[in-house]
Amino acid sequence: MTIRTRLTLWYSGMLLASLLLMSAVLYYELVYEHRAEVPAQQREQAPKQMADIIFLYGAPTLVLLLVGGWFLMRRTLAPVTALTDAAERVHSENLRHRLPRSDNGDELDRLTGVFNDMLGRLDESFRRIRAFTLHASHELKTPLTILRGEMETLLRDAKTHPDHHEALEGMLDEMQRMARIVDDLSLLTKAGAGQAPLVCEPVRLDELVREACEDARILGEKQGIKIELVACEEVTMTGDRHRLRQLFLNLADNAVKHNEPSGRVTVSLRRVADGTQVEFENTGPGIAPDQLPLVLDPFFRGTEAQRAKRDGCGLGLSIAQWIVTAHSGTIQVESQLRGSTLVTVTLPSTGNQRG
User: Fold this and answer.
1) What is the mean pLDDT of residues 279-291?
2) Rounded CA Rg of the chain
3) Could you tell me which of 288, 235, 280 has the C-alpha nearest to residue 255?
4) pLDDT reading at 309 higher than 80
5) CA 32, CA 29: separation in Å to the nearest integer?
6) How far apart are CA 97 and CA 25, in angstroms?
7) How far apart are CA 133 and CA 131, in angstroms?
8) According to the model, what pLDDT value does residue 355 have?
């Protein structure tokens, strides 16, 4: 129940109680107290006269007060509604937006000012976090590249003892994994700051989906995972080829990684009424219902993924969501625990990218 409704009910109750009290006082003062002095015929007519007075004068007054009070409360609470609507539109990407102020100095105007100051502090905090992440990612890339080059040199060096090759290869794999994490983190930070523009051109989505399926077959070969491309209609759209390829590769990699031995991944690309729909469905442990709303958050890893100690840091779906959103599309994840997981991407048929 809204504040306006509660105030209207309270106000109506108070007016009704006041009217009843006034009627009782009038009856007592004008009829009951002087009943001995008034002829019997007039005493019999007194209640009817009182009712006429209340109906003809009290009821219109009550209606007028109710309408006037409702209008007054509506005008008074209108700034609260406007403030609520404006606050609902604020999110992490538009913290520089400020709520409108009435500048009349009342409590609501002061509250709006407090909100705006809070948004300013949040915007500055987000800006510093993004700047730190970008600088840290940039500084980490150089030593990682140097270490990777030195390890590759040691692996190629004939003087390196064969017993050390396995250890060096393991260290090189971890170094490459760390480099991928740094690149993904840098990409997400740039995307959040609007520093990752798209290079738009005509793109054949069916070709990218087929490439992703081929890569998925290679990734799932060791675990015996079967990749099925059940539908792949020819579709061309305007978008960033590199990012769209990255999107499909991330989804294919996730479908293979979070699967069971000898499982299955089903991929489809179809035209739909509102654009193009791409689906990646895989067998596997599934996602718990309480964790499903969090799967697109950065660094989130489900309980099953942590228990199985699967490779990854929880950035793949976050990057996929940014790529889809940048192309004015939508991404949806459905899953059943101990069942299948379905990721559905819907992209517009036109190139209406946000950049």
Assistant:
1) 87
2) 35
3) 280
4) no
5) 7
6) 57
7) 5
8) 44
